């Protein structure tokens, strides 16, 4: 919105513009985050297919590496989505409510959708899906690598480092699920 004079600039207009920009960022991050899950599954499937065709079990270690990188990216985006929601709910909404002299909740959706029946179950199911994609799937590939006949010491060490990192990632998913 172009500003023609300083008289057109009010605190409420600034806050509403901030709200619009934050919701746009949130929408973009949600789309990116959700597509990461599909990309992760596609990448893991491709690596497993190449591994089966080539017979080189060491390629399976790409799955935990990919899942680790994409899982952290997923978590970072999820954190930002939640932070935007919290900011709108706890800071921006009340400030606009004061300016509008209203007792009603401004941006009520930010509060309402958190109290909808079944939300806790949906969050638990989403956490289970996330843990499957970003922890269980790469660990299955790691265990398959460990069971292969051509295990090399340096790759075993690499797989152990990846396993520790995946455990931390899984813990982060569980920690975030509590919210």
What would you note in describing this structure?
The chain is an all-alpha fold and 179 residues long. It has helices at 11-54, 62-100, 109-112, 119-146, 153-177. The radius of gyration is 22 Å and the shape is elongated.
Shape: elongated
- Straight-line distance between termini: 36 Å
Q: Low-confidence stretches at least 5 residues in length (pLDDT < 50)?
A: none
* Mean model confidence by pLDDT: 91
Number of strands: 0
- Computed over alpha carbons, the radius of gyration is 22 Å
Proportion of helical residues: over 70%
Biggest β-sheet, characterized?
none
Furnish the topology, listing elements before pairings:
Layout: H1 11-54, H2 62-100, H3 109-112, H4 119-146, H5 153-177
Helix pairs in contact: 1-2, 1-4, 2-4, 2-5, 4-5
In short:
The protein has 179 residues and is mainly alpha-helical.
Features:
0% strand; mainly alpha; 179 residues; elongated; 5 helices; single chain
């Amino acid at each position: 919105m172009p500003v023609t004079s300083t008289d057109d600039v009010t605190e409420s207009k600034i806050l509403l513009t901030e709200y619009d920009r934050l919701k746009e960022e949130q929408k973009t991050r949600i789309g990116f985050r959700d597509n990461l899950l599909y990309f992760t599954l596609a990448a893991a499937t491709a690596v497993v297919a190449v591994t089966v065709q080539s017979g080189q079990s060491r390629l399976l270690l790409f799955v935990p590496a990919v899942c680790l990188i994409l899982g952290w990216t997923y978590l970072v985006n999820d954190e930002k989505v939640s932070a935007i929601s919290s900011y709108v709910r706890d800071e921006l909404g009340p400030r606009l409510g004061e300016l509008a002299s209203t007792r009603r909740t401004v941006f009520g959706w930010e509060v309402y959708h958190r109290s909808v029946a079944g939300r806790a179950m949906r969050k638990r199911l989403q956490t289970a899906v996330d843990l499957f994609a970003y922890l269980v799937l790469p660990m299955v590939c790691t265990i398959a690598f460990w069971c292969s006949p051509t295990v090399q010491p340096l790759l075993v060490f690499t797989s152990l480092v990846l396993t520790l990192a995946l455990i931390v990632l899984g813990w982060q998913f569980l920690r975030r699920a509590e919210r």
